[in-house]
Amino acid sequence: MASSSMAGEDGSPSSSSTMTSEPPPPDRGTLREAVAALYTSPDQNQRAAADQWLQWFLRSDHAWPLSIGMLRDATDLTSLEALFCARALHVLLRRCVSKAEKTQKSHAVLGEGDWIGMRDCLLPMAWNFAVKTVLHDVRGAGSIPGEAPPRTVLTQVSLAIAALACKMPNWDERAVVRDLAGYFGVDAEAAPDAVVNTVVALGGGAGSNPGNAANNAEGHNKLSPEGAAAVTRAGAGCLLQILAVLPDEVTAREISIHPGRRAAVADGLRAAAAEVVHPALDALARRLWASGDDVPGGDDVNGRILLQEAAAAWCGFHPEAHGSCPGSCLEAAVRCLCAPHGSHHPKLVDASVTGATAVLVAAVHRPERREALGACLGALRAAARANGPIRDEYETAAGQSRARIAEVLASVATRASEPPPDDGPRAPDPLGTGADAAADRKYIPYRDFRKARKERKRADARGIDEHGNLREVEVPLTRADVEVLCFCLDALLEAMEAGGVSPAAALEPWSAMADAWETWKNASAKNVLSNANAGASALLRRPAADPAIVRCAAAAAAAGARCVRMPASAGATATDDRRDDYEYPNSDDDEEGDEYREERDELGEGLRDAACAVDPNAFLPVAVAGLTASIDAHAGAVTAVTAADGGGRSAVDASVKSVEGWTFVLFATARLVGKDGPRAAVGDAIFTVERLVTRVPVSNRTTELAVWTIGGLCKALSAVTEAEVLRAALGAVVTGLNSDDPSVSRGACVAAMRTCESCARILALPADQSTHSQNANDAVGAIARCYANGGPWAPPLATLRRGQEPMTTILCRGLARVAVAKSPGSASEAACVELAGPAINALRNAAATLAAASGECAAHPSHDALVRALQAANALSRMAAECRVVAGALAEASAKSAAEKKSAIPDPHPDQHPGSFPSVAAAAIADALLPAADEALAALAAAAPVFSAAGVGVVANHPAVDRRIHDASEALEAVGGLLADVVAAGRVAPDRLATSQCTGIALRLALNAYASDPVRCHPLLDVVVAALASVGPGARSNPKLSSELGAVARAALDAALDAYDRAGLRHDDAARASMFKLTQASVRAGCASLTDLAERVASLAHESLVTGSSGESALSSLTFAADVLSAAAMLNPSRHAPGDAGVRGGVGMGKVDPGMGRLASNLARAAGGRGDLPGWASDAHEDAIRLADAFHVVLCERGAGVALVRAMLECANGLMPPGLVTDVAAALYAAWMAVGDGRMAEWLHGALGGDRDGFPRDSTTKEQKEDFIGLLLFLHADASGHGDLGPSRLGKTGEKHDLRRFKRCLKAFCGGKKSGSGQ
C-alpha cells in the first residue's frame, strides 16, 4: 500500500498491490462463511481452517475495504459478523503507520487522505450503530428489521476511533476531544445525513410507519420526536463510549505509535480534561439523570453506565484535572449508591461504584476538593449505617447495598493511607517502553537495552537508585491523610456491624497498610545490610503510630469482638455418653456444622493486618484491655444476677458474648508479638487469660482460644523474667489439659509444647536455682504426670487427620526440650529416660494390639475386623513417631553427658551407668526402645499376609482405607525412621551411641526384617543408609567399623538383588528406588564389600535408565547412574580424576544455581554433605581405593561408561518425558564435574557413534556430533554451529561450568522432533 494512495469511496485506503501466491481476493460471502465456521461449526478441522484463513485476511490489504464496506451496509449482518469486522478495524488501525514506505509486513501505510477518509467513515458508522441500539432498546426486541447489533460492536468501533485519534498525524491532538464533542453533540436535525436516513428508514421520520421501512425511505427525511430523541441519545452514547476508551487506548502497549506522538496526544487529552471533558460529562449527567417523564424514550440506563465509565477513565488518566469533584457525575454516582437496593439496574450500580471510586480517590490529598469529598463520604457513610436489627444476613438487599458502598470507602481509605501524589512533570525514562517511553527516546540496540534493564532490576532489588546511592525508604503513613483515612475506617466498621459487609471487605485498608509496613521493613533491612555505618540499625526502628490510627485499630478490635460468631456447637462437651463417636469440631468433616468458619478466618486475618499496621506491640495492650474490661463486666453482671435472685440473665449472656469476642481478638493477634514485646502487656495478657480459663464460665470454644493464645505468646514469654507470669501461663495450660473437651485439651497440649520449647532453659532449672517460683516447676511436673498417665482424654487415633499428631506426642515434644535442657548431663539423661518410658510402653501396646487384631482378622475375616487391624497399624505408626521424639532426646542427653565427662566434670552419680553402656540413655535405647521396635516389626510382619489377602495396598480405593485410616506401609516407614534415627545418632555423639551395641542392634533388626520381605520392607533400607551416612571421615579410618558396615550393606544389597532377579522388586518403583539409594550410599562410603559387584551395579544403573521411567522413579535412576559414572573419580580423585575436573577445581555440583530442577538441587546438597546420602569417602581410605579401581575397570575398560552416557542421551532424546531433560542434564553434568573433560569426551564419542548411528536423528553427521561435544564441554567455545546447533539456537555460551549453558546445549542437540526416528 503506497503512501500516496488516496482513500476509496468507502473510506478505506486504496491499494494497487496484488497477491500472487495468496488465496484469491475474498468477498462478503467468503468472509461470512469463515466467520460462521469459526464461531459456530462443530467440526474442529473447519474451525482451524477458518481461523487460518481469517488470520491471513487480517494481514492482507483486503481487510480494510471489505470490513468497512460490510459495516457501512450492516442491514443484513449477524452480530458475529459485525463484531468481527469492527474488531478487525481496531486491530488494523493499531498497527497502521504514517510513513513514506512500508517497513513491516504487518503494518499498513496510510497517507493524509487515507486518514481523513477513515475518520469521515468511522464517525457516522459509530453513530449509525448507536442509533440502531437505541431504537432497539426503546421499542423492544423485534422492532427493527434484521438482527440488532450488540453493544460490543459500538465498543469496537469506538476503540477504532480512539486508535485513529492517537495515530492520525493530521488530527491536532489538542482538538481531538473538542472535535468529538462538537461532532456528536449537535442537534438531531444537524446530525449526518447517513444517521438521519437510518432513523427515518427505521420508522423515526415524521409521519412514517415504523413497520414499513421501504415507504419510510422515500423522501421522508424529517425526524419525528422519537427519532430526534434517538439521534440525540445515540450521539451522546457515541461520545461517552469513545471518551470511556480513549485514555486507555493512548496508554496501551499494544498500539504501534511513536513515543513522541503518544506523548503529544496524552498532553492534548490532559489539557482537554478540565476544559472539555468534565464539563461535557456534567452536562450529560444532568440530562441523563433528569426525570424519565421529561425525557423521550425514558431513562437511558446504558448512557448512565457509559457516563460513569467515562468519568472513571478520565479521573484515572488525569486525576489532577479540575472539574470532577464536585460534579454532576459524582453526584449521580453517589445518589445511585445511596438509593435503596433494587432502585437501579445492577450494571448501573457497578458503574457507579467504579465512577465514584475513581473520582473520590482522585480527590484525596487535594484541599480544593476536600469539602465535596467530605460531603460524598458522609452521604455514603450515612447510607451504610444500620437502619434495623444489627447483623442481618449478607444476602439481604440492605446488605448488598452496604457491600457496594464499602468497596468505595475501602478504596478511598487505602488511597488516604498513601503519600500525596506528585503532580509535577516526571523525568523521562530512557529505558521506558509503551506509555512510559520518553518522547525523545533514542534508539538503543536491543542487546544493550536488555542488559541495561537487567542492571536496573538488580539495582532496584538492592535498593540502589540511578545515581548509585541507597534509595531512601519512606516510612508508611507519615504523609497519610489521617482525617479521611480514619473517617473511612470508622464507616467501614459501622457497615460491617450493620451486616452485609464481610470482614475481608471492611478491613481491606488495614491489609494495604500492613503490606506497606512489610515492604518498608524489607527495604530497610536491605539498607542496613548495605550501610556500613554503625548506626544503620536505627533504620529498622519503627516509629510510633499516629494516635488517631491507633484509635481506629482499637475500634476495629472492638467491632471484631462484637461481630465474631462462634459455631452453634461451641459450648458442647465430650460427655461420656458420646465419647465413642466424638470428632474434633475443627476437623474437615465438621465444616458443614460451622457456617461462620470462613467469616472468622477473614476477621482474624483482618485483625492481624490492623495489628501490623499500628505495630503488634501497640495493639496488644488494646486487646488485653478489652478482654479485661469484658471479664470485669461479666463479673459485675453475675453479681447483679445473684443479688436479683436470677433476674437479668440477658445481661450475663451479653457479657459472656463480649468475653468470647475479645478472647478471639487476643487469640488472632497474640502470635504477632515477638521477644521485643512489651513485658507489662505480655504479663497482663497472661494473667487475664489465666483468669479467664480458671474462673470465668465460658464456652469450650472460648476456652480453647484462650489456651491457644498462650501458645501464640510463647515467643514473648521466652523474654519475660517475672516468675509469676510463667506460672500463670503454665497454670492456664494445666487447667486446659484437665478439660473434658478434646479440642480444649488439644489446644492446651500445643500451648504446653510451645511454652516448654520457648522457655526450656528456664523450666529446666531446679527450683532452688531458678528466679521463678516453685509453682512453675510444679506445673511442668503436672504436665509430665498428665503425659505419663496417657495424656488428656482424646477420641480414637483414627479420628485424626493426616498430619495431625496425637496429644501425647505433642506433649512429648515439649517435655523433651525441657528434659534435654536440664543440667548436669546425668540429670538430663535421667529425665529423658523417664520421659521415654510411656512412649516405649505405648509402642509395645500398639504392637500387641496389632498382633491381636491381625490374628482375629485372619481367623474370622470381615470388613470390621480388617478396619480394626488397620486402625491398630495406624496407632502403631503414630506411637513409632512419638518414639522418634524420645530417641532424639535420649541421643542429645547422652551427647551432653559425654561432653561433660570428656571435659573432666565429675559425675555425682557414677553408679547410674549399668553394664557396659556408657550412659543410661544408651541403655534405654538398647534395652527398651529397640526391643519395642523389634516387637513392632514382628507385629507388622504378622499382619502383612492379612492385609495382602484383603487387597490393602494392592487394590486402589480400598473400601477399608480412607484419609484417616491408612494402610500399614506408613507404620513400617515410621518404625524404619525410628531405627534410622538411632543409627544416625552417631552424628550427635559419635563416641557414645555410634557403637556396635546400639547401632548394631538397630541394623540387625532392619536387616532381618528386610531380608524376609524386600518389597514390603523397603523403607528399612533407610536404616542402613543412615548408618553409612552417619559415619564421618574419622570413623572411616576405623577398619573394623568400616568392615562391619560394609558387611551389613552387602547383606542388604544381596537380598535386594535376589528379589530384583526374581522380578518381585523389579516392578515396584518405591522398592527399586530404595535399592538404588542403598547402592549409592554403599558406593559413596567406599564399602570394599561391593568390589566384586561393580559390574553388576553398573549394569543395574544402565537397566534402570533404558526402561524409560518417569516421575520419582526416573529421578532415582538418574541420580543412581550419575553416582556410578562418578564413582572412580570421586572415591580416588588423585588417581582417576584429572586436574581439569570440576570437583578438583572447586566447582562441582555445589556451585549449581537455583532453579535448575529438584535433581540438581539434591545433587548439590549431597555434594555439600547436606543430603541424606553420605559424602564420598576419602581416597586415604584403602577400601575406597579398591572400590574406585574396580569401577574404573568397569567404566573405562569394559565400556560401562559409554553405555551409561548413551543411555542418558537417549533419555534426553525422548526415552524419558521431555520435562525431565533438565534432570538428565544435571545428572550428566555431575558426572562431567567428577571425571573431567578428557574422560567425558571419550565417553561421548563412543556413545554418539558415527554417521550411520542414527542418533539423535538419522540426518545427524559426525561433524555435528563433534561440534556438539566441543560445545557441551566448552572445549572450543567459538566452534561454528551446524544446522540447528548454531549460536542462534544455543545463545551465549557463558561460563564453562554453568549448568544452564550445559542444559541448553544438550536440549538443542537432543530436543525437538526427530524425522525418521519414529518419534
Description:
It is a single chain. By secondary structure, the chain is mainly alpha-helical. It has 51 helices and no strands. Helix 36 (969-984) packs antiparallel against helix 37 (998-1012). The protein starts with 27 loop residues before the first helix and ends in a 9-residue tail after the last helix.
Instruction: Please give the count of helices.
Output: 51
- The coarse silhouette is globular
How many individual β-strands? 0
**Largest sheet data:** none
Quaternary structure state of the chains depicted = single chain
C-alpha Rg, in Å?
39 Å
Percentage beta strand = under 5%
Task: Enumerate the spans where pLDDT stays under 50 for 5 or more consecutive residues.
Answer: 1-20, 210-220, 532-539, 572-591, 910-916, 953-958, 1277-1294, 1313-1319
Residue-averaged pLDDT, rounded?
A: 81
Head-to-tail CA distance between termini:
45 Å
Helix residue percentage? 55-70%
Given the helix and strand composition, which structural class is it? mainly alpha
Provide a short characterization of the protein structure.
The protein has 51 helices and no strands. The chain has 1319 residues and is mainly alpha-helical.
Topology record:
Layout: H1 28-40, H2 44-59, H3 63-72, H4 79-95, H5 112-139, H6 151-167, H7 176-184, H8 193-204, H9 213-216, H10 225-251, H11 259-288, H12 301-317, H13 328-338, H14 346-363, H15 370-384, H16 397-416, H17 446-462, H18 482-498, H19 503-506, H20 508-530, H21 547-563, H22 597-614, H23 616-643, H24 649-670, H25 679-695, H26 700-712, H27 714-717, H28 723-737, H29 742-758, H30 760-763, H31 774-788, H32 807-821, H33 825-859, H34 863-902, H35 920-950, H36 969-984, H37 998-1012, H38 1021-1030, H39 1033-1036, H40 1039-1061, H41 1069-1084, H42 1094-1106, H43 1111-1131, H44 1133-1136, H45 1158-1167, H46 1182-1197, H47 1200-1215, H48 1221-1248, H49 1262-1272, H50 1287-1290, H51 1299-1310
Helix pairs in contact: 1-2, 3-4, 4-6, 5-6, 5-8, 5-10, 6-10, 7-10, 7-11, 8-10, 10-11, 10-12, 11-12, 12-14, 13-14, 13-15, 14-16, 15-16, 15-18, 16-18, 16-20, 18-21, 20-22, 21-22, 21-23, 21-24, 22-23, 22-24, 23-24, 23-25, 24-26, 25-26, 25-28, 26-28, 26-29, 28-29, 28-31, 29-32, 31-32, 32-33, ...
